[in-house]
Amino acid sequence: MDVRLPSRVGAVLPLPTSTSFEGAVYQGLLVGASAGGRVVKPLAAQWPDAQGRFRLVLPASVRGKTVRLWQSSFQAFSTFPAKPGGAVDLSTWPAALSPRVSTGTASVRIPGE
Prior knowledge:
mainly beta; two-stranded antiparallel ribbon; 6 strands
């Protein structure tokens, strides 16, 4: 919503204008990886499906490193339909994790070159 304040005291506040965006809010379990205490932004990711299967495509920068998988109840605005087993809108990927996020789900050593 774009709210514009009047330029002088006592002036009438104009009605705000709004702009809509295509998309919807998705809330569910997100699984990701961290390395060296920092969130790794994947190149591609899928939401867990009904059986708990998910997919992460991690960048080459984690080759040879051990990553820790985390899971979080996540709420994000997706510009395309978000569904179990479907693609995650990576523009909403978290840059950091809340201390309440479970970060020790599993550790995985990523093979080097």
